[in-house]
Amino acid sequence: KMNLFTYDPGYKSTASCESKITYIDGDEGILLYRGYPIEQLAEKSNFLEVCYLIFYGELPTQEQYEEFVYVIKHHSMVHEGFRDFINGFRRDAHPMAIMVGMVGAMSAFYHDSTDITNPSHQEISAHRLLAKIPTIAAMSYKYTIGQPFIYPRNDLGYAENFLHMMYAVPAEPYHIDPLYAKALDLILILHADHEQNASASTVRLAGSSGANPFAAASAGIGCLWGAAHGGANEAVIRMLEKIGSANHIPEFIARAKDKDDSFRLMGFGHRVYKHYDPRAKIIRKMAIDIINKTSGNDPLLNIAMKLEEIALTDEYFIEKKLYPNVDFYSGIIYKALGIPTSMFTVIFVMGRMIGWIAQWREMIQDPERVIGRPRQNYIGHASRDFVPIDERK
Ligand code: SDX
């Protein structure tokens, strides 16, 4: 297995890159956005302020913040063409399939801002992606349940607007629970960026060829969908449902340790964190709070906590440094918010969009930018002559 991070292809490659946006220390479980610890941002900030920080590099003044909020509200409505475009999908399509298509289609609807060499085009594209992703996400959901679309309102905050677009129906008022809006806003902060994860690298790689930001973001959504990456939150819930009760946990722990069994403990392990994912710590506390304040008890949360307790005392997980990651508890919160499992990774897209587009712009503005082209170790046949079909065995 070639380790891209030490392999020198003999030329500057995207196998490793420089960035000023996010810092992770996997051994210490540290995560900083532009130098600010995730724990402080989670406690003291809000998602749009964190988006400003990640994109522009500094926390906004009151005036900068208010102007940014206004711009994002201004761009939150989508082009009327999306209502026709979405009708091309099957009603039983996975919302992530619709997201890949709709975000890619932004290249067609907003082609007036796709000159990637133009800094103002870079900025307006970023604003459009951040502003429209909740609207597109809610449309993807409403379309699959056959309900009319609900459009963004200027009197609502970012997370509130999404909950309203997801759950409101034209016929009656919808009450937005502040607890739910706060929980969603925090979840989005925790998912905003994570340095060179697979989907961020995909966006960088796609953008490095000069593809427009909407096409690059669509590529990122496709990559995030995988169960080993952003799709893990949905896979965790399915795993907990399959475990069914705490007394079945040992059987699944044994399967996770069995090399001949493809089963892995979803929501456990990480490419970089060899310690508890700092985001998982915050989400775990939030999951317990929200369950206590809503249903009072959640069998899946109980199984998750017991599973974590057993795994963290098992020598296999200790030796391999496998800890819960951001996806292990997030699904518990989504369920408590009434979000269907098919929308879990869509929420991840909503949080991560700002990280992708900030990294895309950082890469585009790099004067030494190279077109991403990782090299390979060729392990196939040596050169050999063609064999006519009647001579093949
Ligand atoms: C995300 O990169 C990011 O930052 C991603 C992310 C982000 O914010 O963008 O943090 C979001 O993707 C989090 C990860 C979500 N995925 C899952 O929860 C799926 C389950 N996790 C595994 O698929 C796995 O842990 C990975 C893919 C996340 C990492 O796999 P690696 O790189 O193989 O992990 P590793 O090298 O640390 O593994 C060490 C050993 C290996 O066994 P050996 O080869 O040493 O025998 O531990 C094993 C692995 O096979 N292992 C597991 C395991 N994860 C790793 N064994 C059982 N269950 C697991 N979950």
Automatic annotation (TrEMBL):
Which Pfam families does the record associate with it? Citrate_synt
Gene Ontology process terms (BP): tricarboxylic acid cycle
Task: Cite the active-site annotation.
Answer: 270, 327
Q: Which GO terms describe its cellular component?
A: cytoplasm
Q: Name one GO molecular function term.
A: citrate synthase activity
Q: Which domain of life is it from?
A: Bacteria
What Gene3D superfamilies does the database record attribute to this sequence? Answer: 2.20.28.60, Citrate Synthase, domain 1, Cytochrome P450-Terp, domain 2
Query: Under which pathway is this protein filed?
Result: Carbohydrate metabolism; tricarboxylic acid cycle; isocitrate from oxaloacetate: step 1/2
InterPro entries, alphabetized: Citrate_synth-like_lrg_a-sub (IPR016142), Citrate_synth-like_sm_a-sub (IPR016143), Citrate_synthase (IPR002020), Citrate_synthase_AS (IPR019810), Citrate_synthase_bac-typ (IPR024176), Citrate_synthase_sf (IPR036969), Citrate_synthase_typ-I (IPR010953)
Q: Looking at the keywords, is RNA-binding present?
A: no
Alphabetically sorted, this entry's keywords are: Acyltransferase, Transferase, Tricarboxylic acid cycle
Catalysed reactions, as listed in the record: oxaloacetate + acetyl-CoA + H2O = citrate + CoA + H(+)
Q: Which family does it belong to?
A: Belongs to the citrate synthase family.
NCBIfam families linked: cit_synth_I, PRK05614.1
Q: What is this protein called?
A: Citrate synthase
What is the organism of origin for this protein? Chloroherpeton thalassium (strain ATCC 35110 / GB-78)
Lineage, please? Bacteria, Pseudomonadati, Chlorobiota, Chlorobiia, Chlorobiales
